[in-house]
Amino acid sequence: MYLITLISSALVGASIYFLCRYYNRKAANRLNEVLDKLSKGDTSETLELEKQGNFVSVAQNINKVISNLRSAARFSEEIGSGNFTINYESASETDSLGQSLAGMLNRLQEVSEQDKVRRWSTEGLAHFSEIFRSSTDDLIALSRTIIVELVNYMNVNQGGFFIFNDDDPEEPILELTACYAYSRSKYMEKNIPVGDGLIGQAYLEKETIYMTEVPQYYTEITSGLGEATPSSILIVPLKINEQVEGVIEIAAFEDFKPYQIEFVEKLAESIAATITAVKTNAKTRKLLIQSQEQAERMRLQEEEMRQKNEELETSQEELKSQKIQLETILKESKTQEASLTSLINNTTDLIVTIDTKYDIQIFNEAFEKYYSPESDESETVAFGVNILQFYPDNYKIAFQNDFDKALKGERFHVQRKMISKGSFFIYDIYYSPIESETGEITGVAVYSKEVTEYIKKNEEIRRTQQEIAQQAQQLSHNKEAVNRSGVATVEFDMDGYVLDANEAFLKIMKYDDLDEILGESHEIFMPPQQLNSKVYKNFWNRLRNGESSSAQYERITKTGETVWLAGSYNVVTEVNGRAIMVIQVGFDVTETVELIYKTMHQGQQLQMAQNEAKKQVDELHLQKAKQEAIVNALADGIIQFDARGNVEYCNRASETLLNIQKENIIGQSIQNFLPITVALVSAKHSKICIVYSDGQQIEWEQDQQIQIPTQHDESISINLSLKENILGDQTIYTVFLQNGALQKASS
Questions:
Q1: Distances, alpha carbon 595 to alpha carbons 101, 157, 274, 448, 466, in Å
Q2: Which fold has domain 135-285?
Q3: What class is the 486-588 domain?
């Protein structure tokens, strides 16, 4: 502004000169005084001259300049104080200063409006964040608070809050939990099936719907003054991580601005996260109540189970005696395969091992007898026969699934009800994967024990144990209830380090105090042979991916004893789905598992002996394969034939030289491929002759060179040498073939 004042003063300077020259000096001095102040930014004085003519006209123009500068100064002061509503009128269409000030005002108004929008959105999100932090676990009350605050904050007419309800999984709905219109809460019952109407469409498509052409009677809410259809409808899904928890619908008599729509969409994410947290808390409370009730039932059932276990001891004495006898026999049979075969046949239990293709490798007489064919047309049990053909059609898929599960590294047992030759039997079937020295799974050992009578006597206690195991898995989020129930619990972070454990767990694992294991790795409870296994690594990988696991787990106590815990590993996640910890819940089933695995021990001892035998056979095959690989790598051809001239072996080099495939030469006469004759002289010796092109035959006594025709009516020179080997009562002749051209080049 000061610069403009100086410029204006300079423009008027010419007038001073003119006035000083043609008019009186007093007027010129007065004019110079006013302009001097104007050049310093002082616009407080104007010119008041009495003269007529051109001098008065100049004075008037100078006064106009001063007036314009005063207006510009007042305008700048208003702008500086934040008043962007002031108007400024230019002196004329060519007033560049006025137009610049008007342009500056427009830009400042735009910036002010944008800042106002940002401040409105920021304050709104902060306001609702405070509501979310102080929210209760009551979804209805929370939804009413949110819709009331949202309608009032956005200054709209009405709004509805719908929450997704899947209590009926077959017919999920969007339930209207809160409605607010014309400054009053409305109480309405309205359920919208998923996919119906605009609300259902917004839920399925997970996208915002904005309408400015609203059909008449679209809304049902009215004010006390009458009905009116809104001008615009905004429907926003409450979405977080692609999971929609509900829908918000708001209506207004004016169109929604883009920043208002963006604000509601951002707010919807926070609302969805809050709903998810509230639902999770509700489920946790429900599980807590259930766990407390189940803990009480488990205490009563535990006593009943102890009594029934005592009844089992009598029926298990005979089984224990048989196990002791089998263990003694197994120890004596480790050094002799014949004794091992006798041992596995000295039981009525079914024992069989298969490879990865389900082909039988080892079986005992009980298995062979059980699956003996009922007709001559059926195939008998034998090595290399596919085991699936011996099972009835209605059992094949189940057994194949069991085999596949064991081939993946899992050790487990199932119970099957089967009919064999018209009789009904129940079998406990134990599956154990067979691993090579490198840890590769090469097959499955299957041990089947007929427990029909045993099951009939103990069916009730088995149901009780199953119920207890199911109930134990549900005690994952309530430490206090679990401690009272006597079930062991221990918490780990996602790297497997101990965070907490209850007294039951410490007692089972022989620890006196929690500090002994706090911060220690899960590996201290693991058998050493399992620590580096793929199964153990995959176990923790699945937990880190959020997959819970339930089974019977083998663990090692502080004193080095083996215990078995039946229960589950449960993954705890945050609202956003991130896994934060693992809780193991279980109870001690060591006595039951040891009873089962002592029975399986005999099958494992059998498998060890068979594995050793198989290893020796595999080494022989490997040695043969290595030798054959070496021979095939030679540049010279090698062909072996017997005393009658029948080819028994040829390497790859001989196939190339003779231009013939191996399968077309094995078993054929050597005379079909080389110009030689073989005449049997005695049982162990033959006369070998070379046949020349002129038909002359000469007995082969030294290295020979012959011509072999090629595919292009040409021939190559082949150097032949013969060696005779007597192996027992057989004579084997070996012909070495070398390309004459290659030999010459080598020389």
A1: 97, 73, 51, 15, 17
A2: Beta-Lactamase (3.30.450)
A3: alpha beta
